[in-house]
Amino acid sequence: MKKTLNTIIFAALVLLMSSCLKSTEIVGTDAPGSKGAIIEFANPNFIAASSHTVSVPLARYDFLTLKTGDKVHVDVNYAGVADNAPSDIAVGLTTDADALKTHLTQANKTAFVALPTNLYTLPATVTIKSGTKTAGFDFVITDQFVANTTYAVALKIASASAGTVSGNFGTIVVALKRIP
Fold it and tell me: Whole-prediction pTM value?
């Protein structure tokens, strides 16, 4: 009798505890309240340490040993339910001078110089092609950069034809320094 009672109690516990395993996603594109696919800047380098301590928490990437002719490649990334973009996604790009100024001031990087617009070209849009995850563009280091001056530009995803622009990596700061 005692053996039967123990078996019944054990079976009841197993049934009660198995219900704990039936949970919903709390993070990710399948989670309730999720915006679905996210469009963001991919990390072009390691995030600079002082970019974590500011109230405008933009990821800053410092490229400080570039030679004339070097390129800094920046990608935009699709992060969604599917492994790759299900259709072409046009991503609008711009810069954000106010975010750059606030970030650099709070990160105590006031010696950085805003990158003059004549020293780089930023495409108005890039397209993440259907079946892929990324699309990118390059900053080319030219002779016009003043050697040993650190420049910075805040890049911003202004729009996306599908998905939601990331709140964390929708704007990033890229810092560049040409070494002669």
Answer: 0.75
